[in-house]
Specification:
With 507 residues, the chain is of the alpha/beta class. The protein is built from 21 helices and eight strands. Helix 13 crosses helix 14 (294-301) and helix 18 (396-404) crosses helix 19.
Length: 507
Amino acid sequence: MSYLVLARKYRPRSFEELVGQEHVVQALANALTQGRLHHAYLFTGTRGVGKTTVSRLLAKSLNCVGTDGQGGVTAKPCGVCHACRDIDAGRFVDYVELDAASNRGVEEISLLLDQAVYKPVVGRFKVYMIDEVHMLSTTAFNAMLKTLEEPPDYLKFVLATTDPQKVPPTVLSRCLQFNLRPMAPQALRLLARAARGSMRDGLSLADQAIAFGAGVLTEAGVRQMLGAVDRGHAVRIIEALAACEGAALVDAADALRGLGLSAAGTLEELADLLQQMAVAQAVPAALDATDPHNVSVSRLADVLPPDETQLLYSMALHGRAELGLAPDEYSALVMVLLRMLAFRPQRSGDKAAPTRAAPPASARHTPSVTAHSLADVGDRWAAAVDAMLQQGSIGALVRELALQSQCVAIVDDASGAVWRLRVERETLRASAQHEKLQAALAQCIGKPLRLEIEAGVAEDSPAIRINAERERRQREAEQIIHDDPLVQALMAQYKTARIVPGSVKPH
């Protein structure tokens, strides 16, 4: 007896068996029940979500004659009449499936349309299903437009595509469009996630896992088959980041290399964990109650602030794109993890990250700002920030603190200088950034000082000034273009001519 792969064995035979597409089922069922049948349907969605299956179910609904042979169009095809059985078996002559990926020319489409003038042979309706319709050539699309808009009463078009953006608007406007959703994660979480929302891929992976495990499905076996990274590795990485343990991060990467686990899989698992942590921090009740990893997710959500969770999540996502650029993926993984450590602000209780010794004073050429070089408080702060940026003495988060702060007071007295800043974001007001900026500013102006930071909205910060200067230069550049005699002559000659917004860039 021949074996039937799971993706075919469990292909839905009715709308009730279709998983995860309730919005499509309801719309089609109502249309079939009420007799409001459109002449063309477009099903979009990623691979394996059920586009071809829905097409076959629709063809069965249109041609089903019931168990007694007297039935009509129905939302619940019987599955036993000759039309239902033949469509399931792929031998119903009035249901034609065309793969546009391999039949994309005007000749193939013209041959199909030539048959449209003939009435159905055995069914109630002819149904033409064109899969991956976006692959058709421009001439093929043009050839089918008239028939697609006004087909005979007995002809229905079903188009399917994974890339609807490539389908011409003239075709889209002639179809009812339904977007099939990716499958939600199911009980076998590893397989469901590896399938990336595709039911067919999920069933194929289940087939492979059953064969790999000799008929037994275990988490360890599935992980080994997929090369998936155990959640424990991602947890240890987050713990090392929270504790500012650089050595632990490098050890984690070395352990992954020793186990032969994928660097891309590590960052994917890390991003998934950080996403769940963000949910736990914002909406704890939204966590999946059935997920066995909830305990570790909730614990880690308490050791990192929400904004740092978001930052690490973004780095994990972008880090995956760098793996192919490095000499080997593990060195790239180490760099991504160390970048996460470098950009994570230190807080009270954190271990200090190792720093390089400063060069001797004789070797430094540092621009300085004296305490009384500028009269205005805002000008003095902007000049000081510019000097610190030029000397490169402040890191990313400290630089952001400096740029986003407004200097509200500078006091020089017998006890020394006091610079008071105002900044809105709580993350930037952390003690680690505060101390680093104070040290860099003292070095910049050449004298000890005390830096005080208060919460509040900055009305005049270096960032605001930089943006204002950028906008001024942009307006000036646009005005130069508008005033150019050649441009004015062209605008006068061609009444519909216009300068594309955003196309003018100042030098």
